[in-house]
Amino acid sequence: MSENPEAKNSAEPTRRTIIQSSGTLAAASITPGALFLQDGGENLSPGRARGDDELGVALIGCGGRGTGAAGQALSTAGSVKLLAMADAFSDRLEGSLKTLQNNYAEKVDVPEDRRFTGFDAYKRAIETPGVDVVILATPPGFRPMHVEHAVQNDKHVFMEKPVAVDGAGIRQVLAAAELAKSKGLKVGVGLQRHHEPKYQEAVKRIQDGELGDVLLYRCYWNSGGVWVRPRQAEQTEMEYQMRNWYYFNWLCGDHIVEQHIHNLDVCNWINGGPPVQAQGQGGRLIRDGKDHGEIFDHHMVEYTYADGSKMLSQCRHQPSTWSSVSEHAHGSKGTANVSSGRMEFTDGSDWRYRGESPNPYQVEHDVLFNAIRTDTEHNEMDYGASSTMTAILGRLATYSGRPVSYEEALNSEIELKPEAYAWDAAPPTVPNADGIYPIPQPGVTKPF
Amino acid sequence: MLTLLSLFCALHAAAGVNPMPATSGQDAADDQGAIYPPMPAGFPAPRGIEGAAAKTEAEMSLYAEEIPGSEVLFKMAPIKAGSFLMGSPLEEEDREDNEGPQVEVSLDPFWIGTHEVTWDEYQLFQFKLDIQARAGGGAEVTPQDSWADAVSRPTPPYVPMDFEMGVEGYPAICMTQFAARQYTKWLSLKTGRFYRLPTEAEWEYACRAGTKTAYSFGDDVDELDDYAWHFDNADDKYQKVGLKKPNPWGLYDMHGNVSEWVLDAFTKDGYGFLGEEAVHAPLNKPTELYPRTVRGGSWDDDPEMLRSAARHKSKKGWKVQDPQLPKSIWYHTNATFVGFRLVRPLKQPTAEEMSYYWEADLESVREIQERQRQGGR
């Protein structure tokens, strides 16, 4: 951004407006986290309760999920308006805008000069005057720099999971989390199970000891896999990878990170934190085409928590094999299928969740926007980061074939991001003459 | 339309009737090459299956067809032409207003699936397992394969759609009506025989199987457990197809297990729009996405919702768990109780009718379908 004077200028009016409207404040006294409460003046701290104000939203990452998240933000109580959109690709942005206009016409105000495309688009969307909340829904490789910029610019955030693809990204997110807390900013992370009453009640029961000591967790995301975007003739390597992003680690983190994080996160939630160590194995058997980049199609990881309990984790992308997306806990007094809201106890009794099941994708936005309006503490970044890190840890274990500690994974100096973000720049991995990418080789690959 | 014509000819050529000169078919296909590959010259006939080649009602019999390139079988039972009173009488217990007024309906002969379509069948289409098996086994690509390959297929679901209730031998669920209709199109091109969803009238005629009672076994709900999976006996999930007793015409799970898509829009005012006179082969084609009709009730319903005349409607809420926008045109992520079964009319329809039964009927769906065909989302 520093080399883009236009973008820089667009941010300044916001700050100047704050200074001017707060009257007596000297610019030098404005520090992050300060409460701009002067005698009889307005409270202009970034975290102040916004009451019935109209809240401006910027959407960054206009895929199906980002568009859905924007729709949910616009469906929260009170006045909300979508003011800016950003995506690497203009066709994705325009398609998303059309969908949102069709569904939320009067809440969408994104004229051409607030539609931003390219790698730097996020900065201009975040800095758009009137934007209070940003939705971060690009591929996860970009999340750390996006959330850092959002928090630096005093924005509340809804960020999709996962929040990073490597230890360096997690460290950046954790720093942004501290800054967000010091400013009183509200941050939601798209691990929507935390907003499902079924999970909330099951986790509480287990934490209250209904299963006795939990000795073992199991969790699964075994499915048929996801979409593929075949290469188009006119694409640069960078554009191809950005379109077919699921298959490249610097963008996606492998499916253990992109999908399985949900299940790992539930086990962490019950245990009270992330595991300390992991070892595992994985590979690719079905996923072997030119459009399948570098990621595996199966991982099986054994994690160890600080209390000595274990978590067995499986994730697989192979069509027409046994499928399961679930989490389970086994204790001295019984077992729980957390995802089904069921528990069976050794004394023969059982429990089944029979309550309401509101749409968690809506609830997570309702909670976030309510926190912004009432200045209620709300920051999900810590568990968002540690659960993402748990998934990254699993990937490092299956890629290396060696045990890995959480600490060495988190502090690894190996970064996945490219040297430059540009359409003609080389991505971190490129195909050989046959169009095939290097695949991690357990025992040989040193991923951390 | 030219493409439809070429398809029409292809299917006729397949049956050995009026073979189309290859050049003409080629021209027709070129007009909408994005939809179908050029029609192969001398489109081969469907495999001869006893009973399946019937030309008259008298020749019709039960037949089993293997989906080409797989070992998966499905069975089709013959249903004779006839008339019945569609809807329920005013005095029927638990009757809803939308089940009437009763109207006399006559129908032409057709075959109907003896069982609900299973995951074994549907996943061949959904996951392109036919293509994968061909590639893996080095099998040659038949002309039927090329045509079937060109049919739009579901996007991979982010979450597996069987929800751990079972796959082998279990009914396929959670598909939109559009997805079910694409399956029937794919299967038709694959087999050379025309398949589609039932109309609501065909479904009820087949379900009643000549009965006028609340269920095809009578009015005594105490017998329901012998014939159907419902909320009280299904253990909160669907069950394998065909485990309960069939109805008088040999059809399994018409009551319960999973509700079944039909072609018709849901009319909350019932059948009044059909008038008071007897009608022949009615079909109330949808013009909106919701509500459309599913019939038969499911594992998630109480007994009264499994009655022969009971009607259920699709709704937006069936996609609540889909976090994307626009919502998938392929999945009703929340409709874990909705599947379908096949129909094949004895009289092969015109080309226009084939399209009418198969193709996207809303511009909003067609747009997404076309974008996906071009590699987008």
Task: Outline the structure in words.
The complex is a heterodimer of chains A (448) and B (377). Chain A is 33% helix and 19% strand. Chain A is built from 13 helices and 15 strands. A 9-stranded mixed beta sheet of chain A has the order 14-13-12-11-7-10-9-8-15. A 6-stranded parallel beta sheet of chain A has the order 3-2-1-4-5-6, sandwiched between helices. With 377 residues, chain B is α+β, with helices and mostly antiparallel strands. Chain B is 25% helix and 12% strand. Chain B has helices spanning 2-14, 22-31, 119-126, 129-137, 143-149, 177-191, 200-208, 224-227, 351-358, 363-373; strands at residues 63-66, 73-79, 82-86, 103-107, 110-113, 259-265, 279-280, 292-295, 311-313, 338-339, 343-345. In chain B, helix 1 runs antiparallel to helix 2 and helix 5 (143-149) runs antiparallel to helix 6. The longest helix of chain B has 15 residues, at 177-191. The two termini of chain B are 26 Å apart. The model of chain B is unreliable at 1-43 (pLDDT under 50). At the A-B interface, helix 2, helix 3 and strand 11 of A face loops of B.
